[in-house]
């Protein structure tokens, strides 16, 4: 399928910003990065997802820009993003979390790709990781994938939500975010797989997004996130196995990888005892999985051994 980029004065991009009790400074920085875009043909909607404290005043400095606020009962980020999508009409949709920051050329770069590659349905890119003060503390760990990328994306989600620009026609074809609570925090991965199963995607080479890591992020709910990832993969298996038969052949390996990633994240957070559950699930699927056995043995030998393994893991990454 091919699309045409509009050339009228109407907004080209609808920017959807879900917010639940946002940090005023973070939200201000996110909106400031939007206003600073070299591409000016955008509109933005901040969706207040049932915040306990109103934050209308945070938006007041942006009153002269096409930024509006809509409010709804709390329903989670998927429902908030879907409400924002429905309330807008531009041919492209971008997502910006209320604590992330865009580089000034983000939208311009992505619209250029969309114009040059009409078969592409979604453009994304790597991120620079920043802390609560805005200092850069890292960048994306995994390389981006482009083209017909469903199979590679099935093996790992490399698409940060705040980096995405997607054609509205593409969303109308595959559907928006699944609001099932079981997919909380991974509903984006489910959508990217649905897009990649039907359309090409494209990865920018340079980081155009600054992703903020902080203790209040929902990604810290490790168990819920990885349980949700399992559900996403199960749905992909049901929907696309006939189209992508490699899913069935690789299913056990992929599920074992989920359990190993789950365990490594818990170990990184110092929650060693909790890590044994997913490690045991991993070796049950793959009895000869050496890395999982290494972590299991190390966890039994004590914290010092695990600390050395964590240092090795960090160097390898």
Descriptive notes:
Helix 11 packs antiparallel against helix 12. The radius of gyration is 20 Å and the shape is globular. Helix content is 45%, strand content 16%. The longest helix is centred in the C-terminal third of the chain and has 23 residues, at 246-268. Mean pLDDT is 91; it is low at 1-8. It has 317 residues and is α/β, with parallel strands linked by helices. It starts with 12 loop residues before the first strand and ends with a helix. Strands 3-2-1-4-9-6-10 form a 7-stranded mixed sheet, with helices on both faces. A 4-stranded mixed sheet has the order 5-11-7-8.
* Largest sheet: spatial strand order: 3-2-1-4-9-6-10
The pLDDT mean sits at: 91
Low-confidence stretches: 1-8
N to C succession of SSEs: EHEHEHEEHEEEHEHHEEHHHHH
Q: With helices defined by DSSP (H or I, 4 residues minimum), what is the helix count?
A: 12
Largest sheet: 7 strands, mixed
What share of residues are in beta strands?
15-25%
The SS-based structural class is: alpha/beta
Total DSSP E strands: 11
Specify Rg, calculated over alpha carbons. 20 Å
